[in-house]
Design goal:
The structure holds two protein chains of two kinds.
Chain A (H helix, E strand, L loop, with lengths): L2 H24 L10 H25 L12 H27 L3 H25 L7
Chain B lengths: L2 H29 L10 H24 L13 H23 L4 H20 L9
Helix pairs in contact in B: 1-2, 1-3, 2-3, 3-4
The chains are: A mainly alpha, B mainly alpha.
Chain lengths: 135, 134
C-alpha cells in the first residue's frame, strides 16, 4: 500500500472516530444542540470518512497511469490530501463557531473551507480520470 | 477495468464534481450570504453526492472486482449491469429536471427509476457474491 493511501486511510479512521464522538455530543440529553454541529457530524462521516477512504483506495487500486508514474503525479495526490483535510478541519472549527457567534472571520473561513474542499474534489478527478480506463 | 466500469466510474466522477460544487456553494453561502436561494440546492447536492457519486462508484467497482464465473460469461449476463447504468443515470436526470422545472411526479419517477436500476444491478450480481474459483 503506497504511503499516500496509508495517510488517506488513517485520516479516514480518525474522522470516523471524530464523527461518532460528535454523534455522542449531539445526543446529549437536556442540552440545546450547537448550531452547525449536525452538518459537521454528517460531513465528518460522508466526507472525512467515506470519501477519504474511497480516494485513498482508488489512488492505490485503479489501473496504473504509466509505467514510470503508476499513480499519476504524486504532488497532485498529496494536494488532494492536504486540501481535503485542511478544508474539513476549517469546517469542523468554523461551522459551529459561525452558527453560534457569526463574524466576518468565521464567515470567510467557511468560504475558504468550501473552496479547499471543492479543490480536493477537482484535484482528485484530475488525477484519477485518465486512470479510469479499459485494461 | 471493463468498459462498463469505466462508464460507471467516470459518470460518478462527474457527479462528484457536481455534488462538490453545489456543496461548496452552500457552505460558502453560509459564511458570506450570496443568495438565500442557494440553500435550496440541498436536495440536488444530496442526489449527486449519494446516488450519482457514491452508489454509482460502488456499482462500477463491484462490476469490476466481484468474483467472476469459471464457466460461461465471466461476469454473467452483463445486460443487467448495463440496464442498471442507464436506469440509475436516468433517475438522477429526472430528479434534476424536477428541481429546475417542478414537474409533478418527476422526482417520484426518478427515484423509482433509480430503485429499478439498483434492482437490475442486484439481479445481475447476486450470484457473483461467492467464494473465488467456484
Amino acid at each position: 500500500m503506497p504511503p499516500l493511501t496509508r495517510w488517506f486511510l488513517k485520516a479516514a479512521l480518525v474522522y470516523l472516530i471524530l464523527a461518532l464522538c460528535t454523534g455522542i455530543l449531539l445526543a446529549l440529553p437536556d442540552t440545546t444542540p450547537i448550531a452547525g454541529l449536525f452538518p459537521v457530524y454528517f460531513h465528518l462521516l460522508t466526507f472525512g470518512w467515506l470519501t477519504q477512504l474511497i480516494f485513498g483506495v482508488a489512488l492505490w487500486m485503479f489501473p496504473t497511469y504509466s509505467p514510470t508514474t503508476p499513480r499519476g503525479p504524486e504532488w497532485l495526490g498529496w494536494s488532494t490530501f492536504a486540501l481535503l483535510n485542511t478544508g474539513l478541519i476549517l469546517r469542523m472549527i468554523f461551522e459551529p463557531w459561525n452558527g453560534t457567534a457569526a463574524s466576518a472571520l468565521t464567515g470567510w473561513m467557511l468560504v475558504i473551507a468550501a473552496l479547499l474542499q471543492w479543490l480536493a474534489g477537482v484535484t482528485f478527478v484530475a488525477n484519477t480520470w485518465k486512470r479510469v480506463r479499459v485494461k | 477495468m471493463p468498459r462498463l466500469s469505466v462508464y460507471f466510474v467516470r459518470a460518478s466522477l462527474i457527479y462528484l464534481l457536481l455534488g462538490f460544487t453545489l456543496g461548496g456553494l452552500m457552505l460558502a453561502n453560509k459564511g458570506i450570504l450570496i443568495s438565500p436561494m442557494i440553500w435550496g440546492l440541498l436536495p440536488l447536492h444530496m442526489e449527486f453526492a449519494f446516488v450519482g457519486w457514491m452508489i454509482q462508484l460502488a456499482m462500477g467497482i463491484a462490476f469490476w472486482i466481484l468474483p467472476r464465473f469459471n464457466k460461461g460469461a465471466p461476469r454473467g449476463d452483463e445486460r443487467f449491469a448495463w440496464l442498471a447504468f442507464v436506469l440509475v443515470n436516468l433517475g438522477v436526470f429526472f430528479v434534476t429536471l424536477d428541481y429546475f422545472f417542478d414537474v409533478p411526479w418527476l422526482t417520484f419517477t426518478g427515484r423509482f427509476t433509480e430503485v429499478m436500476g439498483l434492482l437490475a444491478f442486484i439481479m445481475g450480481h447476486w450470484r457473483r457474491i461467492k467464494p473465488f474459483d467456484t
